[in-house]
């Protein structure tokens, strides 16, 4: 069976994957509304609603109904400026978004986590991602899809030296460690949104690549 998402809530529409996902959503004839709050204005589209401002401030003012929510939020410790600021985005803001989406009627949440996410990891980045996953599971979603991509490949508006240096190598490493193009991840997320499969599903990077071909 397949669920046809008609009313979509999207966080992170100005990010690398979020931009590609937004384009796909707006091109789908089955999608009648995309609600995509963002810090900066998005290009206008008949099916797009784009409240502009800080997401945490916008969340209480968003209006449903919504049946599917995509969370493409994410930063780096370097970009955020500190571990605390990183956690505020990749953990706290993700949970706040998910909670509001559920209040608006969403039954399926699809969230981008990361390869190696583990709440018990000694690596801070992986530990925060794992704790975020655990907290989302505790929200008791009817359907929760956790995507764990490897290094995301594609042109970013913000320069990230580490990713720029690693990208050529990550295109050739085997299995789920291999980098994944943001366009491929966006296609995979949309395909996963169409699948009706109650409960929690965790999708690793190699499977995301196959789904997004």
TrEMBL record:
It comes from the Bacteria. Pfam families: HIM1. InterPro entries: Him1/Fmp52, NAD(P)-bd_dom_sf. This is Oxidoreductase.
């Amino acid at each position: 069976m397949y669920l046809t998402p008609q009313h979509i809530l999207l966080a992170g529409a100005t990010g690398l994957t979020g931009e590609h996902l937004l384009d796909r959503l707006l091109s789908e004839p089955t999608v009648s509304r995309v609600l995509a709050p963002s810090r900066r204005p998005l290009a206008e589209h008949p099916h797009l609603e784009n409240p502009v401002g800080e997401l945490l401030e916008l969340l209480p003012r968003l209006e449903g109904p919504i049946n599917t929510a995509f969370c493409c939020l994410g930063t780096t410790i370097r970009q955020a400026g500190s571990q605390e600021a990183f956690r505020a985005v990749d953990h706290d803001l993700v949970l706040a978004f998910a909670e509001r989406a559920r209040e608006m009627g969403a039954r399926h949440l699809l969230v981008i986590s990361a390869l190696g996410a583990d709440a018990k990891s000694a690596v801070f980045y992986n530990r925060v991602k794992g704790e975020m996953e655990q907290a989302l599971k505790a929200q008791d979603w009817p359907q929760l899809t956790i995507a764990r991509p490897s290094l995301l490949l594609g042109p970013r508006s913000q320069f990230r030296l580490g990713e720029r240096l690693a990208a050529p190598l990550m295109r050739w490493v085997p299995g789920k460690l291999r980098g994944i193009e943001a366009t491929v991840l966006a296609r995979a997320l949309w395909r996963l949104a169409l699948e009706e499969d109650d409960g929690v599903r965790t999708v690793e990077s190699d499977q995301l690549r196959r789904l997004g071909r």
